[in-house]
Design goal:
Helix content is 50%, strand content 13%. By secondary structure, it is α/β, with parallel strands linked by helices. It has one domain: NAD(P)-binding Rossmann-like Domain (Rossmann fold). The chain has a 7-stranded parallel beta sheet, with helices on both faces. α4 links the parallel β4 and β5. α1 runs parallel beside α2, α4 runs parallel beside α5 and α6 crosses α7.
Length: 268
Amino acid sequence: MKSLVLITGAAGGLGKAFAAECASRGWDLFLTDTAEPPLQALADGIARLYNVGVRFETCNLTDPAARERFWETIRAESLRFHLLVNVAGLDFEGPFAEREAEELCTIVRLNVEAVVAMTRRALAFRDPARTFRIVNVSSLSAFYPMPVKAVYAASKRFLLDFSLALRRELKASDATVTALCPAGLPSNPPVIKAIEAQGVIGRLTTRNVGFVARKTIDRSLANRAVYIPGLINVVLRRLGSLVPRSFMISLLGRRWNLDGKRPKAAEG
């Protein structure tokens, strides 16, 4: 079999978009997510539409034992990869003290630990005949400490810094790393509802997942370090860098009306 593209979180909106984009370029795929039915449907649809090889394996990426079983399958079948797209990630939005401890830990396990673990293992299974490319899905929130999304934004900051540092480490080994930092992406009904709740700003900063996937792969092939989709998001990022961080945190806090709300005490 040809070398493959490995996509985590493949059954979500952005994961599906990356799968379709990579398949449209004639690349064979290996998809993973937590549930089999949506993976099976996606694999069948992609294979039929684009005439490429598509394989999949379910995996709970927050579970180290499950990740180990996943890579044992890869090793047993002697598979090789030329692109890793780390899409899998999640957020439980709300004031820190009101979130369950397990929810907060799950964000860190999936957004940070799983990306590190999957990247390290994928490097060991790279196709030696091709440039190995890594795309990590960070966020525009990586540039700002965000009240009500404190752990999520911090996890995305980690991914940005991790990507930039790893990019430098791998420079001499024919491997590239690109950090995708989007704002709103209409990838599922709860996210779409949250974007709509933001009004004009939400609509202006949102980009279609297909557009983002296509442009991200283009940037990865061009060896770009960071990609922020949408001119307005680039402008917001640059404007944000010109003001004190304390002001940005206060501004973001007012967006959630935190001045008039005291978080509940955490339990457990």
